[in-house]
Design brief:
The complex is a heterodimer.
Chain A (H helix, E strand, L loop, with lengths): L1 H14 L6 H5 L1 H11 L18 H15 L4 H12 L14 H28 L7 H11 L6
Chain B lengths: L4 H18 L20 E2 L7 E2 L9 E6 L4 H16 L4 E6 L3 H11 L6 E4 L3 H5 L7 E5 L5 E6 L4 H17 L1
Parallel strand pairs in B: 3-4, 4-5
Antiparallel strand pairs in B: 1-2, 3-6, 6-7
The chains are: A mainly alpha, B alpha/beta.
């Protein structure tokens, strides 16, 4: 009797299995599309995570929202616009080029150009600093003699 | 002497950027809804689910929409500020009970006091998404035409109330 009871207790957790979340299994193609889109979107609550990987409640809700909009036949761009109209460009991991993101997009290139210009200027300046030596014929001869001592031997 | 000028200039510029950065809040998401009409909704009221509340009823008035929940810890920080404000009769405060169980919301208002004229139940958080809610509490100042003028992310404090919200309300009411 006791053994039967133990066996029964051991089997109990099996009944606790709740099944996989339904919406995940519903349509694998749609789910894949949703994850693909959500990977490029930022979770608002934990901002270093994508909407696809975050476990926050809001991310859950937003994923559900994206799923439903996909089922309604909205394009990826329409869904992105929907989210941007509510949460701003902040939800995008890839910020659009706008007047206030110009520095972000082109700043590094501007710095690179400035660095190159500085380098070229510096090199030119240095070239002018080296004085041209004026040598008379005699000096040239002396230098040649010094450089080629074997002749004398 | 001149050779130290450029490193010094670069240092000053960098230090300037870093100093400004110290005062920025990286968690603050600027709302694109400011200057736009408040999203329309029709939700049942928390205290009387047979009745509905819609922001359209508020046309012609300056009002506050405060997103709260019984599970929200920072809401308890701002609660005394809201209670005091509601007693002053300057501006009506309406609540949006975000992703909350009705009983829990009612119990919290019973316990902590109710600063809201009406609270609407946004049980599944759908309306929250429309308003771009990402961190409760959030408070919206909405003008007579139903346009969102300001959004306070996080608790309303005495400071934000007196520096931002109240002057803005006075200005909007005068229009």
């Amino acid at each position: 009797m006791k053994n039967v009871l133990i066996l029964f207790i051991c089997l109990l957790p099996g009944f606790a299995y709740g099944g996989q979340a339904k919406d995940l299994a519903d349509d694998p193609v749609l789910e894949k599309r949703m994850i693909g889109l959500a990977e490029n979107l930022r979770c608002l609550v934990c901002q270093n995570e994508s909407l696809a990987s975050s476990r926050s409640e809001l991310a859950n809700d937003l994923r559900q929202e994206v799923r439903e909009q996909m089922q309604k036949g909205m394009s990826d761009q329409e869904i992105i616009d929907y989210l941007v109209s509510r949460y701003g460009d902040y939800v995008l991991f890839d910020p659009p080029v706008k007047s206030y993101t110009l520095l972000l997009w082109y700043g590094p290139f501007a710095l690179l150009l400035a660095g190159l210009a500085g380098l070229i200027l510096q090199l030119r300046k240095r070239k002018n600093k080296i004085p041209e030596a004026h040598l008379s014929n005699e000096d040239v001869k002396r230098a040649a003699d010094l450089l080629n001592p074997s002749k004398d031997l | 002497m001149m050779r130290f000028i450029w490193p010094f200039v670069i240092f000053v510029v960098l230090a300037g950027f870093l100093y400004v950065g110290l005062h920025l809040n990286p968690r603050e998401v600027p709302s694109p809804l400011i200057g736009k009409p408040a999203p329309v909704f029709n939700l049942s009221q928390l205290h009387d689910p047979t009745k509905q509340f819609s922001p359209q009823e508020m046309k012609g008035q300056v009002w506050l929409l405060n997103v709260w929940a019984s599970w929200c810890v920072s809401c308890r920080v701002e609660h005394p500020v809201l209670l005091a404000l509601s007693r002053q009769n300057i501006v009506p405060i309406y609540g949006l009970d975000y992703k909350d169980k009705r009983e829990a919301g009612l119990a919290w208002l019973q316990e902590g006091g109710n600063p809201y004229v009406i609270s609407a139940s946004d049980t599944d958080g759908r309306i929250g998404i429309d308003y771009g809610v990402y961190g409760v509490p959030e408070t919206y100042v909405i003008d007579k035409e139903g346009v969102i003028r300001y959004k306070q992310i996080g608790p309303v404090t005495q400071l934000s109330l007196h520096e931002k919200i109240l002057p803005l309300i006075a200005e909007l009411k005068a229009k």
